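Subject: for your reference before the review

Hello V.,

The reviewers asked for a structural picture of the protein, and I figured it would be easier to keep everything in one thread rather than splitting it across files. Below is the amino acid sequence we used in the manuscript, unchanged from the supplementary table.
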Amino acid sequence: MQNPDINILQTEILSDNWYTLNKVTYSVLKKDGTTETQSREAYDRGNGAVILLYNQLSNTVILTRQFRLPTYINGNETGMLIEACAGLLDNDNPEDCIKRETEEETGYKISRVEKIFKAYMSPGSVTEILHFFIAEYSNEMKITDGGGLEEEGENIEVLELSFEEALKMIDTGEIKDAKTIMLLQHLRIKGIM
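And here is what came back from the structure prediction:
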């Protein structure tokens, strides 16, 4: 349902180099009945999916570590970020996407996933909505080393950590990624781990 108080007046593409950065000018009907024109920038990179693999028997989770330029230029000394496996939908449905990304990044071939929720991660500037999943894994599901796709420039390290160690890494700041923190907390809050 469209918001009747918002009227898009103009959309200008500022950049479409990696993804699309738009400048959107719109009018908004305010509570006092007046109309105001505003302009904002919105980065459109498409929607994505994220998953946390967990093993109740061994009390472990699978995470990844890779270089993230935005964190590097914002003070992360190495630019390396520990996070849950994630990727863009690329015209797939969220479940197919996350199964593909799991195999590419971690080397685990999973068949059953549980969607737990979806959330906007940075709604003030990014259009992306992220679909959150969890899935159990076992050693028998490991079919490759993972590491991502070379043609996409991915160089991903796969980490198997105890659940308690992963939670401690939030406290120490070793895990700073919001989607990963949300998934780890979900496992704890729901009593899954």
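For the response letter, the relevant points are probably these. The two ends are 39 Å apart (CA to CA). The longest helix spans residues 94-106.

Happy to draft the paragraph if you're swamped.

O.
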